[in-house]
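The protein record quoted in full:

***
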Amino acid sequence: MRQRQTSSAMALALIVFGMPAFADIEAAKSFLDTEIGDLSSLDRAGQEAELQWFIDAAKPYAGMEIKVVSETIGTHEYESKVLAPAFEAITGIKVTHDLIGEGDVVEKLQTQMQSGENIYDAYINDSDLIGTHWRYQLARNLTDWMAGEGAAVTNPNLDIADFIGTSFTTGPDGKLYQLPDQQFANLYWFRYDWFNDQKTKDDFKAAFGYDLGVPVNWSAYEDIAEFFTGRDMSYMGGPATGVYGNMDYGKKDPSLGWRYTDAWMSMAGMGDVGEPNGLPVDEWGIRVNEKSQPVGSCVARGGSTNDAAAVYAVTKAIEWLQKYSPPEAAGMTFGEAGPVPAQGAIAQQMFWYTAFTAASVEPGTPVMNEDGTPKWRMAPSPHGVYWQEGQKIGYQDAGSWTLMQSTPVDRAQAAWLYAQFVTSKTVDVKKSHVGLTFIRESTIQHASFTERAPKLGGLIEFYRSPARVQWSPTGTNVPDYPKLAQLWWQNIGDAMSGAKTPQEALDALCAEQEKVLTRLEKSGAQGELGPVMNEEQDAQVWLDAPGAPVAKLENEDEEPKTIAYDELIKSWQK
C-alpha cells in the first residue's frame, strides 16, 4: 500500500504563505494572492468573504488534527500538498490527507464499516458505492447532516446545484450521500493528426471501403485497429515500427475489474435501456425488482452477467489485446497502461480515462505540437453489436467525500469543513486546471477554460455538451461494492490468462455474485433494501422476455460506421 504523509502542514504554510500559526484573514489573503489569483468563479471580494466564513466556522476546532484519505491522482496530490496546508494556515485545523491506492481506499472504508473503528475522519471514495451507502446506512446522508449536526459548518455558498455529479451520489430515497470532489470520464482517444492525413485516409478507404473517422461501433474500431497495427507511420513523423491500433491492459489485478464494471459491458450492449445505469438490469448484470432490491445476476435469475452480450464484451477485449496491442500490455495494470498512448505509438484507445489528460498535454511529448495543441483528440467510445439506443455508453468516475456514522461528530464536522474548502468556488477553478477533473458547472464555464480548450483535445467540449450526462458511475443496483468488486478482477483475470473461456469465467462470476447476494438476503443486514433472490428458471424463459438478458446473435459482425470528429463536435455544440 502506498501512503504519503504530509510533513507539518503548519510548517508548509509558514514557508509558502509566510503567515504565523493560526493566522486568520491575512493568511487567507496571502493564499489568494499566491495560489488563486483570477482562477476562481468568485471575484476577489467573494473569495475573501467565503474564506472569512471558513475562518469563523472553524474556530471551535482550531488546533484539532484530522485524517482524511483518497486515491493517488493529480487532483488529490494537489489537495494534499497545497490545499491541506493552506486550510490549516487559514483555519487552524491540521489535516493529514493520505494518498493510497484506490483498492486500498475501499479496503479501509470496508474495515471501518465492519468494525465501527474510526480509521479516517472522511473518505474520498467513488460514488460507485452509492448502493452500498444507501442500503447499509453506515455513511451519514449529507442531506440530513447539512440540516442537522452539520448545519453550523455547512458553507452557505456551497451551492449544491452547481455540482454536476450529485445525481450519481443521491440514493433512491432522494438523499445526498456523498459530495463530488473530482470527476473524469472514460472516452475514446485517437491520433487526430494521423486520422486527418490524406495518405492515411486514402490507404484506409482503399483497404476497407469506407472513410477513416471516429468509430461509432466496435466493427469500425476493429478495422481501424487492424489497419494501424504494424503500419509504418514515419511519413507522419511517427514510428516506422511498433505502431499499434489498440491499447488496453490485462494483468490480474483489482484494476482489471474496473475495466469491466466501469461500463465495458454496457458499451458492448449488456444490460437494459435506461439512464443512468440501465433498469432493471444494470452494467454489472444485476437485476433489481420494483423496490430496487437485487434479485439475480445469472441469466437463470434474470441477470445478464453471463449472457451473450457479456461474453461478446470479454471476448473482443481479449482478441484486441492479443492482436492489436503492445505485447507488454497483457501484463500491465490500469496505472501502467494509462500513460502509454502519450508515448506516440498508439493510434487509438477505446476506453481511455480523461484523468490522463494532464499527462497527455505535457510539452515535448510525441503527441503534442510545438504550439501547445495536442495531436490527439477524445470522443465518445464506440458501442458493440448488442447495444441499443438508450443504453449506457460510458463511465464517469466521481470520487466523492463520504462521512461515516462511526466518525465522532466533532471530527466529522472538522473534516466536512475541509471537504467544502477543497471543493469551494474559491479554489475549484484553480484545482481543476491542475487536475482537469471537473465537478462544478461554474468551473466548466469559466473563461479560463474557454481559452484553454484548444489545448485539451475535446475535454472542455465534452463537459460543456449534453453528452456528459450519458456517462455515469456504478449505480444503486450494486448492494455491496467492496464484496462484489473483488469478484470481477479475479474471474475476468481467468479469462484474460486463458485459464477459462469467457463464458466459463462469466458463469463463475455471476454464480459468485449470487452467493454474496444470497448471504446478504439471509443476514438481513440491509433490511428491506437488501436482496430478495429470484428462483432459478430455464434460461430461455428470460432470454425470450423483453430486454436483458439477451441470446447470442447469429452474426456478431455489424456494418462498420465512422463519423468525422469535427462533425461530432458540431453536434455537441448544437
In short: Confidence is low (pLDDT under 50) at residues 1-22. Residues 475 and 516 are 18 Å apart (CA to CA). The longest strand covers residues 179-191. The chain has 23 helices and eleven strands.
